[in-house]
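look at this fold:
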Amino acid sequence: QVQLVESGGGLVQAGGSLRLSCAASGRTSSNNAMGWFRQAPGKEREFVAVISWNGGYTSYGDSVTGRFTISRDRAKNTIYLQMASLKPEDTALYYCAVARGAATIDIHSVTTWGQGTQVTVSS
């Protein structure tokens, strides 16, 4: 079983930046895609970004493309989400996730979720 621990959330002003981290431990996830989702109050959980097992493929949700960057350090079993030009609508609980496959992720293919880290963007 993989355990995921997110960190790096916080309060930031609009236009600012944050970097989220997600450290995996336990049974290795190094051969699986990993990604980020977010959920705002009263809304459904939303795909943010995915990175393939070797970091060679990345994809982003429409609302964050061009502003967020996902990366992966396989030696540290950690993925990151660099968030820039943050907007109040980016406010949400951000979840790290491990996919069943090696390249892509969607909410139905997630095998492990982290506990979430809160990101709040003030206007």
